[in-house]
Amino acid sequence: xxxxxxxxxxxxxxxxxxxxxxxxxxxxxxxxxxxxxxxxxxxxxxxxxxxxxxxxxxxxxxxxxxxxxxxxxxxxxxxxxxxxxxxxxxxxxxxxxxxxxxxxxxxxxxxxxxxxxxxxxxxxxxxxxxxxxxxxxxxxxxxxxxxxxxxxxxxxxxxxxxxxxxxxxxxxxxxxxxxxxxxxxxxxxxxxxxxxxxxxxxxxxxxxxxxxxxxxxxxxxxxxxxxxxxxxxxxxxxxxxxxxxxxxxxxxxxxxxxxxxxxxxxxxxxxxxxxxxxxxxxxxxxxxxxxxxxxxxxxxxxxxxxxxxxxxxxxxxxxxxxxxxxxxxxxxxxxxxxxxxxxxxxxxxxxxxxx
Length: 355
Fold this sequence. Notes:
alpha+beta; 7-stranded mixed beta sheet; 11 helices; globular
């Protein structure tokens, strides 16, 4: 495994923000993007955090990502429970924040709210946006389509994207319920991370470009991923693409672009944001009580090892965040070198502080 060091959360956040400002992003958007990426690492989802900085910065510099997107409504509106927005090829974090903010506002007004976003880009971990709803006492869902990168056994080429989806609900505890999954056995970023670390991958993660079994993360990344649960993940992926891409009037399936293979072109990515307000069904206090009771029932599940308790989605991420807030964020040495080069090119001080 390649060497890696841990860096303070504050220094990584500040450095990323300065880097994004240096390539033209407004301060607020640069700050938000940096916070999202660092938060993702804090949860332990290293494949979707700081690791993506080099490609994001490259795409902003070459114009594939709009540094100052003009996000606008193209269907529906404030007076509708459904709205479609055009992200003007902005970085996915900024487009997604706007999409979920509007979905939340609609849910508080109509009981449910749905916002479809087209002409966007990679938005990192879907959990970031589903959790926005949970933080408001709502139930939230966020999903996105991506270019075809998974396929069924027997395919010579990938036939759909791994199309991640996250679902969140408030537990009125230290962390919300939050399940964030892609429709592949693993996210493509995990192959990138394995390659950075010099690790091998399990043979059920991906196949080569020729459809052959492999434990080489680079060969797997150049090939395509295998779906989780085979037909189950495959079918879910197709459905997400229908909602996000087909129904929004945006790009879908092979019309989508890879941010790596098409680094100088907009990805045309589409997203779905949904929020539900339980207070339309019952008083907020009743919902809170019922959620706590539900969580207690799950946690009370008898375990073979009596020293263990059933884990609720979101719990592992919370524990990881508490640890990394103290111990710092681990970054592979190769990634750190990439960040140093980006800093030099942008005229920004490399200010990461090791813990």
